[in-house]
Structure formats: C-alpha cells, structure tokens
Specification:
By secondary structure, this protein is α/β, with parallel strands linked by helices. The protein is built from four helices and ten strands. Strands 5-4-3-6-7-8 form a six-stranded mixed sheet. It binds guanosine-5'-monophosphate.
Length: about 180
C-alpha cells in the first residue's frame, strides 16, 4: 500500500476517493429526503470541512444555503474549559433549519462548547453532519445526525484534514502508520 509522507510522519490509505464519494452520495440522499420542502442553512466549520462541504453541497437537490465559519478557542483556558467562539457567522439563524458541517468529531468538545451559542439564537432545528466520527474518543455526548464513517481513534489526514498545515489536498483519507 503506497505510503504518503507528511512532515516527519508516514500515512497509509484508509478511505479511498470512491469510498468517500459513495458515502457522501448516501448522506446527501438522506438530507434531500429529510429536508424536502425546506431550505436549510449549512454552516461549514473551517478549515477542515471545506472539501466535505463542497462535495455534499453539490449533491443537494433541495434549496439550501451555505456559509462558512471558523471556531476559535482561547488558549490558556484549556485546562479550565476553553471558550469557543465563532468568526464569520453573519447570518441570522433565528427560525432556520441549521445543519452544521464538520470534518471530524473527536472528543466532541469543540461542538459541545459551540452548540449552546447557536441554540441561544433560536434556530428552528439544529443537526450535525460530520464526515468522520471517532466514537471511541468521544467524551462529550453529542448526537451526530449524519455520520460518514465511524473511525478508530487514530490520527487521519487528507480530504481537507491536515497534519500541521499539510495534507489537506489529498483526495483520500490517510491514517497514521
Ligand atoms: P474535538 O473537539 O471533537 O475533540 O476535535 C475536533 C477537531 O479536532 C476537529 O475539527 C479537527 O480539527 C481536530 N482533529 C481531531 N482528530 C483529528 C485527526 O485525526 N486528524 C486531524 N487532522 N484533525 C483532527
């Protein structure tokens, strides 16, 4: 199996381009069905989710809106429970059907800290779509409504996900050897 080297580490193919694409077909079909007649707003969380968001969005046949935000956690507060805030959410989400688009949910902390801020703005509904979920590593309980792949607790890169800035351009998802 071909290895990819990024910085000092080697990674091996874990999910092929075709496997990812087929699974996104299924996720999009589910969303098209669940939101028929509605106009959800997809909130894609940068940086890692840009590729998944684009491929998912292309497959939608319903009317839908898309925006991108960045979550910033204040360092130095990590041990006491960091505060996560968003940059770039200009849309009024009151009364809207919201679907959060994430690349990966690991411990669940990021979304667990961020969701109350969104709920505070009283959307009509709030669901989560994550391409990857490390359910073994999840500490903060979170319902992920649309999960691409439940993966083992190993570091992955590619398809938008980076290792120290690199690897986002890979078409497949790779796992640390
Ligand atoms: P959580 O708050 O759920 O623990 O972590 C979520 C964030 O951690 C993700 O959005 C992602 O940025 C990063 N992350 C967690 N696991 C991985 C991984 O295996 N590979 C990469 N590249 N990032 C990860």
């Amino acid at each position: 199996m071909p290895l990819v080297k990024i910085h000092d580490k080697s990674f091996e193919t874990y999910l092929s381009e075709e496997t990812i694409s087929n699974r996104i077909d299924e996720l999009a079909a589910g969303i098209n069905k669940d939101y028929a007649g509605n106009r959800p707003l997809f909130i894609s969380i940068l940086n890692g989710s840009f590729m998944f968001a684009a491929d998912l969005f292309k497959r939608l046949t319903i009317e839908a809106e898309l925006c991108f935000i960045k979550l910033v956690s204040y360092k130095g507060m990590k041990s006491t429970g960091k505060v996560v805030t968003s940059i770039g959410l200009e849309e009024d989400i009151f009364g809207k059907d919201i679907i959060i688009v994430e690349d990966i949910v690991d411990t669940g902390k990021t979304l667990h800290d961020f969701l109350p801020q969104l709920l505070h703005q009283q959307p009509k509904s709030l669901k989560i779509a994550s391409l990857l979920h490390k359910s073994e590593a999840t500490i903060y309980p979170l319902t992920i409504d649309y999960v691409g792949f439940d993966i083992p607790n190993k570091f992955v890169v590619g398809y938008g996900l980076d290792y120290d800035g690199l690897g986002r351009n890979l078409k497949e998802i790779y796992q640390l050897v």
